[in-house]
TrEMBL record:
Stated name of the protein: 60 kDa lysophospholipase
Gene that this sequence comes from: ASPG
L-asparaginase N-terminal domain span: 11-219
Known function: Exhibits lysophospholipase, transacylase, PAF acetylhydrolase and asparaginase activities. Can catalyze three types of transacylation reactions: (1) acyl transfer from 1-acyl-sn-glycero-3-phosphocholine (1-acyl-GPC) to the sn-1(3) positions of glycerol and 2-acylglycerol (sn-1 to -1(3) transfer), (2) acyl transfer from 1-acyl-GPC to the sn-2 positions of 1-acyl-GPC, 1-acyl-sn-glycero-3-phosphoethanolamine (1-acyl-GPE), and other lysophospholipids (sn-1 to -2 transfer) and (3) acyl transfer from 2-acyl-GPC to the sn-1 position of 2-acyl-GPC and 2-acyl-GPE (sn-2 to -1 transfer).
Family label: In the N-terminal section; belongs to the asparaginase 1 family.
GO BP annotations, alphabetical order: aspartate family amino acid metabolic process; lipid catabolic process
Quaternary data: Monomer.
MF annotations from Gene Ontology: 1-alkyl-2-acetylglycerophosphocholine esterase activity; acyltransferase activity; asparaginase activity; phosphatidylcholine lysophospholipase activity
Binding site for substrate: S85, T116, D117
Length: 568
């Protein structure tokens, strides 16, 4: 975050509609055109004398000087048609992003004037559509039209223009009632009061009072000099389902039918839902068909956790945690992730579980570790390694660790570069792990496939005797387990030594995903734990019905056999 310098700051204000510019027609408010003309008559928004002296065009206004050394000019681009924001959709928000992209080089910052009703959705969508922002983008609007005597539009718009012109905050933000919020953290909480928005799980990025207080440690840093990317291929077939006590399974089934590809499910408290078997079965069936479900709490504050069995049941049904995301942000993220071409189902779920634009707070320790996922870094390393011709020894020492880092991050580009530089992708790093271990631990199905196709050994053991298959089981990376099993990987007797106790632990926590991972890897789920009880007995005692059904099915039916040879 930096203070914006220079004698002139140029902004683009994209006017999309909303109450701020509305007029009364037949007793109701409708979007009103000509916002620039209204602003031109208000001295706080326009210095006509200066504009004339500079010969500014009709659509470009200039603020009175905020400081002696700086002038802010802004061009108002009025959209056609103008909308009450209740009518806006992903299509219009992508168009706004494309407008910003078209004018990105000409302006120092952007203000989007938008209706408040869906402004939180708009800000969330824009935050995902616009990648690598280096300039400030601020949405604002009003509860009362700007031409009314007592209104909030003037203060909000002027504040947004001043913030966008005076600070470089490379994010999509929302300015309302003297507070600058991260756009994908807000939700509209009041339909009448001027303080219409709140950001329940992240303090404001800035607060305007006598002074402007910027929360510097919260503002995201611009990533290098990577060019702006506009992701216009957003998935439209996503939805929002709010659970309520007693919601019938049949209703959930009807909602989850194709063409729906992803759903944000608003659950109770810390991510809990009914544990009725018929409902869980519907959710699990949908997840198995490839429908992506994100669990968000309908509480305003707090996060989805795994504190309760009722929450674990949700997780067991193949549902991704949305942690403390607002439903607006989760829906936008889902649309963005599902719109990404070429991602496997596991790849989509992994992307959803990451914090991509500051939209969610991950539990401590779960943050995505710095890696080689940035291809600029990968290219830099490749360059460095080719430069030092004489430093073969250094190169040989570095290669295995670099390959492991790239495999863990699923960076196929870097892996390819390393192969081209002559790296052997089956070499071990300092703790005996190969890139296949790293890819399996990171759940990177793409990297696992690439390595297997390249002919690496499927069952190497690291210093502790662990195989990639075991690491994939521990991370519940089902796609990876499937690939390794298909290539002939097996768990060793040593890896299966304490499996019975582990299975009982999973059964007691209703961790169906964990149990299914072991089963998929070839473990015998009938193995007793330390006290002689099987996972089935433990699940029955804990009343974890879903787990019971799963284990009974294995015991009784065709699924009784583990899906392949269990041990070497
Ligand atoms: N205050 C507002 O802007 C509400 C209006 N219905 C809109 O969202 O366009």
């Amino acid at each position: 975050m930096a203070r914006a310098l220079g004698p002139e700051r140029r902004l683009l204000a994209v006017y999309t509609g909303g109450t701020i510019g509305m007029r009364s027609e037949h007793g109701v408010l409708v979007p009103g055109s000509g916002l620039a003309a209204v602003l031109r008559t208000l001295p706080m928004f326009h210095d006509e004398e200066h504009a004339r002296a500079c010969g500014l065009p009709e659509d470009t206004l200039v603020l009175p000087p905020a400081s002696p050394a700086q002038r802010v000019t802004y061009t108002v681009l009025e959209c056609q048609p103008l909308f009450d924001s209740s009518d806006m959709t992903i299509t219009e928000w992508v168009q706004i992003a494309q407008t910003i992209e078209r004018h990105y080089g000409q302006y120092d910052g952007f203000v989007v004037i938008h209706g408040t009703d869906t402004m939180a959705f708009a800000a969330s969508v824009l935050s995902f559509v616009l990648e690598n922002l280096q300039k400030t983008v601020i949405l604002t609007g009003a509860q009362v039209p700007i031409h009314a005597l007592w209104n909030d539009g003037r203060e909000n718009l002027l504040g947004a223009l001043l913030m966008a012109s005076q600070y470089v905050i490379p994010e999509v933000c929302l300015f309302f009632q003297n507070q600058l919020f991260r756009g994908n953290r807000v939700t509209k909480v009041d339909s009448r009061r001027f303080a219409a928005f709140c950001s329940p799980n992240l303090p404001p990025l800035a607060v305007v009072g006598t002074d402007v207080t910027i929360n510097r440690e919260l503002v995201r840093k611009a990533r290098g000099k990577d060019p702006l990317v506009v992701h216009s291929s957003m998935e439209r077939d996503v939805g929002l389902l709010r659970l309520y006590p007693g919601i019938p399974a049949a209703l959930v089934r009807a909602f989850l039918q194709p063409p729906l590809k992803g759903v944000v499910m608003e659950t109770f408290g810390s991510g809990n839902g009914p544990t009725k078997l018929d409902l869980l079965r519907e959710l699990q069936a949908a997840a198995e068909r490839g429908l992506v479900i994100v669990n968000c709490t309908h509480c305003l504050q707090g996060s989805v956790t795994s504190d309760y069995a009722a929450g674990m049941a949700m997780a067991g049904a193949g549902i991704v945690s949305g942690f403390d995301m607002t439903s607006e942000a989760a829906l936008a993220k889902l649309s963005y992730v599902l719109g990404q071409p070429g991602l496997s189902l596991d790849g989509k779920k992994e992307l959803l579980a990451r914090d991509l634009r500051g939209e969610m707070t991950l539990p401590t320790g779960a943050e995505h570790r710095p890696s080689l996922s940035c291809s600029a870094l990968g290219r830099g390393i490749a360059q460095l390694l080719t430069l030092s011709q004489e430093a073969d020894a250094v190169r040989d020492a570095l290669m295995p660790s670099l390959a492991c880092a790239a495999a863990h991050a699923g960076n196929l580009e870097v892996l390819q570069v390393l192969v081209e530089l002559g790296s052997d992708l089956s070499l071990e790093n300092f703790n005996g792990q190969t890139p296949l271990h790293a890819a399996a631990r990171g759940g990177q199905a793409g990297a696992v496939s690439m390595l297997l196709r390249g002919g690496v050994h499927v069952g190497p053991r690291d210093e502790d005797g662990l195989s990639p298959l075991l690491l994939a089981v521990k991370g519940r990376h089902r796609g990876v387990i499937e690939l390794l099993r298909a290539a002939g990987a097996c768990l060793s007797p040593r890896e299966l030594e304490d499996v019975g106790t582990e299975l009982c632990r999973l059964a007691s926590r209703a961790d169906l995903d964990g149990l299914q991972s072991w089963w998929q890897a070839g473990a015998d789920l009938g193995c007793p734990g330390y006290d002689g009880r099987s996972a089935l007995l433990v699940a029955e005692a804990a009343g974890n019905l879903e787990v019971v059904t799963f284990l009974q099915k294995l015991q009784g039916g065709a699924g009784a056999q583990a899906p392949g040879p269990a041990t070497l």
